[in-house]
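Human: For the file, kindly provide a plain-text protein record giving the amino acid sequence and the backbone structure tokens, at your earliest convenience.
Assistant:
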Amino acid sequence: MAESEYFAGLDIGGTTVKTILVDHRGEVVGDMIEVRSHVKDGFDATFGQLESALDQLTAAIGIGRDQVKGIGMDVPAPSCDGVIWGKANLHENWVGTNIRDQFSERIGGTPVYMTNDGNAAALGEYAVRRKHHGGLLLVAPGTGLGGGLVLPGGRAYEGANGLALEVGHISSPYREDDGELPVCSCGKKGCLEAWVSLVALRRRIALELAKPENKDHGLNDETPIEEKAFKLRDYAQQGDELAISIFRQQAQILGYGLADLVRVFDPGLVVLGGGLAETEGFRDDYMLWIKEGFAERAWPMYQNSPINPEKITTRFEWAVGGDSAAALGVAFSAREMFRS
């Protein structure tokens, strides 16, 4: 194996492209570099940004781009075998395009691995846990509810068409006060994401503030609902009953949904990502509520072994990879696939 081999991870987001380099040993070299994303200007504009990022990564450690032997790339959209299947927040010319092969050709034939952002983040969380060799299920509440599954050995499970692990769109039995299933951002009713996401928080806040008993609440002012949703965590950390009740409901519903995912995949380790992973104090309560929802739905054997009750069969941890997790995940995958 050549000791001069390097592998790049390119995490393409709607606002920035985060990039990282690892060497043949899997050690990160240099710093993460961010460049602006131009995904809404078309894939050619984004390719220019990716090349700029590669040049900055290699220049920072004094190597040539020819020493990058493989590239991992993730995209914020469903894709299969390098081809984008859905627009999401991208320019329409991404759809139907083999982004993986076109970018590989543009940079002189360097091989490229491509997956979606949820899988990439899960791979990154697996990569930073050097002593963990089992499965790993990641769920990440954010604007929506993303996720990914890494199989023992470090390979992402993507499904036959790259469409697996849309965890936010499994069914949830919970209903609104009027008995209706909430409408998800995907257009369907009753999705888990309709309860566990930033968008869901906005809906819940609006409904709760409309109740007479909450007319004098501090959030019941002219502040836009988007800002109220961001302020809600601060209120919860201060012990506000309304904020805590909303987050408790969200976390318990997430735990209930996770019980079904664990029943199907039995990953052994569930990692919680998203913005809540970076908070202190309040997130301990949130994790406790998740486990309460999980315990309500999961069979006892998915919590502790029936043979050895001391053995925990499903562990829960907060994400630790930070902003670089997705870039690191695809860089590690490129290393596994393309090293000599």
